Amino acid sequence: MTDRIKKLSVQSFRGATQPFELQFDPGKPVILIFGENGSGKSTIVDALECVSGGSTTFKNDWKVGARKFSYIPTLGKALTDVKISLDFGNQSYSATLNAKAVQLCNTPGRPQTKVLRRKSLQAFIDAD
User: Fold this and answer.
1) What does 26-94 look like in DSSP terms, one character per residue?
2) Distance between CA atoms of 54 and 80, rounded to whole angstroms?
3) Are 14 and 74 in contact (CB under 8 A)?
4) CB 94 within 8 Å of CB 10
5) What pLDDT shows up at residue 56?
6) Helix, strand or coil for residue 14?
7) What is the pTM of this model?
8) How far is the C-alpha of 8 from the C-alpha of 48, rounded, in Å?
9) Which parts of the chain register pLDDT below 50?
């Protein structure tokens, strides 16, 4: 059996106003995340993308004042308050933020993610 996501923990990242842990059932072949607007779906997906690859595709979508921010801490929190961890297979991976970039742990075998956002899905649908 291939490795699966077991748990995601998020603190002070985007919409996570309180620290949370999300447990996944590693026996399920598909993970479906759904909910009402503002319920945290994008925070979960962005946290997965951040901890797995150290980047997010939403970084060019946010502009606060005159400066663009690549990663957004929860309102009222500092970049250094952000902590994301992912239990995948038999390994744990973590990410923190600073003013320059995402800091990833050195655990080998980091899982890869590909997030398909509305813009890329629409481009796929509209393509010839």
Assistant:
1) TT-S------STTSSHHHHHHHHHHHHHS--GGGGG-EETTEE-SS-BPTT--GGG-EEEEEETTEEEE
2) 15
3) yes
4) no
5) 61
6) coil
7) 0.82
8) 8
9) 62-67
Helix H or strand E segment including 123: helix 118-126
Taking phi over 0 as left and psi of -120 to 50 as alpha, with beta for the rest, 42 belongs to alpha
- In this structure, what token pair is assigned to residue 87? 């239990």
Query: Which residue type, as a one-letter code, is found at position 74?
Result: T
Token reading at 95:
């990410």
| Cβ–Cβ < 8 Å for 107, 54 | no
Structure tokens at 38: 């503002």
CA dihedral 126, 34, 17, 3 (to 10 degrees): -90
Q: What is the pLDDT of residue 70?
A: 53
